[in-house]
Amino acid sequence: MVQGWIKAQREQLMAQAHAAIESSSVVDPTITAAMALVREQIKQRRQRSLNDVQRRLLQVMQLSIWLGGLFIILGLFPYTRWLQSLILSGPLKILGIVIAVYLLIRVSDTFIDRFFNALTANELLPPDTSQRLAQRVTTFSRVLRSLIATVWISTGILTSLSIVGVELGPVLAGAGILGLALSLASQNLIKDVINGLLILWEDQYAVGDVIQIGKASGLVESLNLRITQLRNSEGRLITIPNSSITVVENLSKDWSRVDLGITVAYDANVDRAITVVKQVGEDMTNDPAWKDKIPEPPDVLGVDDIGNNGITLRVWIKTLPLQQWNVAREFRRRLKRS
């Protein structure tokens, strides 16, 4: 009876969540497209990992058959039997560790992709949360995959050293001393890693955002614990160490804004110009092709400046992320036709 009550409450909460989502504002097609693109990329990467694991398993099986046959052949002759113990003592075990590490890395990548794909496929999340989550998925998955691969490789190296008879205690002590020396010599690298962790944790920006760092601006193409790579409007790839990032301007997080200055002549009727600008904003807000990209009506602030070239009117238009440039172009086009 208790289980039935819990099930009924869960179904009721699910129904309320779906109703809340359906009653909310219309989801912009660009949000759905971005989420679908990220999910498709994760799906393709997971499929490639599965195909790679299957191919490698077949190669391992083939190699095992060849090695097994060679091992049996060596045991058929008395003067080659000593090679069997030599093969079993070290080389074969190290080869097995290398294969195991490779397979563990591929399997880990597959599970990570499945986990993040399940997060982005959650239909109970609000549209804006789902979009932001979809943007962060690629960033977190890349960093997590790199960290796990490093752990597996380090474990494989230590295991191989123990097989060949190397004492791990002195090795770890020497590695600690070497790590301390490297940390003192590469302080910028440590700063890069710490700042990269803070960027990810605080969600300052993610892959797919448009940001400005100092004089550099562009689309975030890659982000890891050490560097951030931007692609600017000219197609140039800009690489920035995370330690040098102090102030970040995110132009596409949550929402964006068009800051438009319109200059009119001194002899023009300012009130008439403001009325025309407001009318253009209302028409564009009511247009089915653009109303989903403009969550609020444009805010005409009025006369912002009086300069040598004329009188400047200031308009603010709140838009969805990454839509401010398209909205600004369309607003200027309509204003010119008015």
TrEMBL record:
Domain spans labelled Mechanosensitive ion channel MscS C-terminal: 260-337
Which residues belong to any copy of the Mechanosensitive ion channel transmembrane helices 2/3 domain? 153-187
- Family classification: Belongs to the MscS (TC 1.A.23) family.
Q: Where is the Mechanosensitive ion channel MscS domain?
A: 188-253
Compartments in which it is found: Cell membrane
Q: Which GO terms describe its cellular component?
A: plasma membrane
What does the record say about its membrane topology?
Multi-pass membrane protein
Q: Name one GO molecular function term.
A: mechanosensitive monoatomic ion channel activity
Q: Which residues cross the membrane?
A: 57-77, 83-105, 143-165, 171-190
Q: Please identify the protein, giving its name as recorded.
A: Potassium efflux system KefA protein / Small-conductance mechanosensitive channel
